[in-house]
Amino acid sequence: MNAEVAAATAAPEKKEFWRWQENTWYDETKNWKDAKIITCGIDVGSVSSQAVLVCDGELYGYNSMRTGNNSPDSAKNALQGIMDKIGMKLEDINYVVGTGYGRVNVPFAHKAITEIACHARGANYMGGNKVRTILDMGGQDCKAIHCDDKGKVTNFLMNDKCAAGTGRGMEVISDLMQIPIAELGPRSFDVETEPEAVSSICVVFAKSEALGLLKAGYTKNMVIAAYCQAMAERVVSLLERIGVEEGFFITGGIAKNPGVVKRIERLLGIKQIDTKIDSQIAGALGAALFGYTLMQKQAAK
Amino acid sequence: MIANYGYKDGSGEYYISIDTDKCIDCAAERACLKACPQQMFEIITDDYDDEVAWVKKEKTRALAYDCADCKPAGGYTGLPCTTACTPGAIKHSW
Predict the structure, then answer these.
(1) CB-CB: which of B4, B48, B61 is closest to A242?
(2) Is B58 on the interface with A (CB under 8 A)?
(3) Model's pTM, two decimal places?
(4) Which one of A125, A199, B4, B41 has the fewest CB atoms closer than 10 angstroms to its CB?
(5) Phi and psi of B13, rounded to 5°?
């Protein structure tokens, strides 16, 4: 069989619509070698893993990628991704803090801290000391957090029992609609009238309900809008359990989806605090900042 | 800090809240640990280095079932955990 025939008869490549953009960034205006204390936060989540480097208490760089099939390798790969770009070695880092569901499996971490505390600390850095209510929409769970002006948690609630209102739920809808995940938010507004939210709060049932809506004549955009609205209603009910204070901030991958964020803002009647920093790194950033504080305390002794 | 452990599903909201500020210097000598027939509580060191009670991770997704025996239908007039916790740190949402 020649190459042309092989190419023609090969199965078409399956497009992964759910695949979100992995990214690496570092501050090119600074040199990490000038820093006195370098700390690192590693957030091994159920869907994504991030490594964040903090130099003297300031964000220096990060790498965000999809979690692999085990936590130790995911942590190593996330950190290696940023260290390779800037010519850093593990020995150059003074302190490493692990967080996320895989936090106890970060082999080179000096300490593990829950993602609840880390997200609050990260949000405090990203959104400033006015942040009081944080909604973390993670890969497979959702957290509502209250914090004080220093980013210390005062009240929290987590729902990790079902995937409704999480990043994984959005990935499922993306694949079902065969629309790249980054386009879901903008497309959800491209509808003539805002449809009712899908009624189910379970991802499995929402999937079958979405298919039913398509058969009933809904456009894809209308189905996406209905799902974004359902997700917004779901997380708002979670937030209402602990109450919402001014200084609202969203972390996690879903914060990049305007279709959900704008609907949450509409339901709550408040705007979220904007940031230029990637919302997905909040947990790892908070972990690195915890590491910096611990290093300062050690130095003071 | 108010720590809420539990979940919301199609049947309702099931959260056990623990006020860790009241829990740190427990005046009841950690009576919740023995009072709960399901042994749902344990003492941990939290992220801010305080020793407090929490609901065991494996129990947080089945509160509606695990706590059912201690509700009025089970013959109790008061929840054993909240009764034992004299500082009033433990609350049930349902």
Answers:
(1) B4
(2) no
(3) 0.91
(4) A199
(5) -110, 130
